[in-house]
Design a protein that fits this description.
Layout lengths: L1 H15 L14 H11 L24 H12 L37 H16 L5 H16 L1 H8 L10 H15 L4
Helix pairs in contact: 2-3, 3-4, 4-5
Length: 189
């Protein structure tokens, strides 16, 4: 988050005489937009992408956590293939229900609690459904949330596929990065 990055940069500035600074080139976009850009513009990078390392070291994804489920959902939503990155389990099965904040009764991970996470998942399930993805959780989404997702779709697209402020990014980089983001996300926002 930009506030945390600013705090770190204050400490780094003191320690390095302002010679070291951390920036985030993904600060102005949401996770679902990152996934879309990776699949559409940088598909060669997908082989290096991983989120968790299972204890058995048999792959880059455990396929049994909220992070893997979210990436599976976002890939399906934006037209990516979860199998292409090693998400080999169908994370639209009932076993994965507890990993999605829109379905879970109790959310154990802090990043799954904000309303924005549920909001982005509503949009992502709607997009995955439209792309022909099926499974028990897609059916549950359709039954419980389709009407809500349709009602807030326009605002959600603008938000989650929009390009927002970048307080940590220098202007010379920011302009180039924003140009890429606007180009890649134009049809989705």
């Amino acid at each position: 988050c930009s506030n945390y990055t600013k705090q770190i940069n204050n400490h780094l500035a003191q320690a390095s005489n302002k010679k070291i600074k951390i920036i985030s080139i993904v600060e102005p976009i949401y996770d679902i937009a990152e996934v879309k850009i990776l699949f559409s513009r940088y598909p060669k990078l997908l082989e290096y992408w991983m989120s968790c390392v299972p204890e058995n070291n048999k792959g880059k994804w455990c396929c049994a956590c909220a992070t893997c489920s979210e990436i599976f959902l976002y890939a399906a939503a934006v037209g990516g293939d979860p199998l292409k990155i090693g998400l080999n389990n169908n994370l639209f099965s009932l076993k994965a229900k507890e990993f999605y904040p829109i379905f879970a009764k109790k959310i154990s991970q802090a990043y799954g609690r904000p309303a924005e996470v549920k909001e982005s998942q509503l949009l992502a399930f709607l997009m995955a459904y439209r792309r022909g993805w099926r499974g028990p959780l897609v059916s549950l989404f359709k039954k419980r949330f389709l009407k809500t997702a349709l009602n807030q779709e326009k605002a959600s697209r603008k938000k989650f596929f929009g390009v927002h402020g970048a307080t940590t990014m220098p202007t010379n980089i920011k302009n180039k990065v924003f140009e890429i983001y606007h180009k890649e996300l134009k049809k989705l926002s």
